[in-house]
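Friendly challenge for the regulars: who can give me the structure tokens for this chain first? No prize, just bragging rights.
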Amino acid sequence: MNKEELKNIFRIQESLKVIGYNDIIRISKEILQYCSDEQISIDSVLERLKTQEPWEYIRGKVEFYGNDFYVNKHTLIPRLETENLVDLAISLCKKNNYSRIIDIGTGSGCIIISIAKTIPTDQGVEFLATDISTEALKIAKRNTKRNLVEGKIRFLQTNLLKNIDLTDNTLYVANLPYIPSSMYRNLDRSVLEYEPQIALEGGENGLFFYEELLKQLSSAKEGIASTLVIEIEPSTLPQMHKLLQEYKHEVLKDFRGLDRFVLIHLS
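First reply, four minutes later:
Bragging rights claimed.
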């Protein structure tokens, strides 16, 4: 790195400190590389960051589970704890002979793509991902090409699992909007003004979409070895226990030690 680049790195890092970013060393290098590749000024990126626009949206991609994924204003920026959800799904697949894996509310497709990349094609597992947003599905399909799994995953625009056959031996994975409305209204400006509300807010109790999902899944309750694994807001766990009182389920923690995932046995 030459003297001019070092000067620019320092300037970027100082700006990131003021804005409130934490991982300033990594991001400053990414910004410098991005501006060089796209032949745009550093100042133009810093000005956008000052408005709290997420760096991931400016850059147009994010790293998740060791792979790069396209993201934009129609897709949620995947969080680190969701990598634990992928780990959990992969672990379940190794222990059970699922014939199908369905990612409900796929967004950018980062969950189902990360899972599909670890399971050999010759295992004969069917991969399906749903989302209500056509724009999100466009990004998810682009991400299959980027991650070399194009054709391995089928995408369907629908409300959760509506119009899908639920009788197969299936692993259902869902990271649905789960932030209670009162909590959502107090999120950072970078989230409120830039990330899609439809991918974040889960109604007054944070469980609106999971309540609907369980209604749709009720017809599959007697299926063979069907499992649902979900990500939740930890503060909603007491209400989630009530919602799942007729199901055998267990709670698992994320890397921060928070009650983030629920494993639900549907049979």
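The mean pLDDT is 95. Residues 3-50 form one domain. Your move, everyone else.
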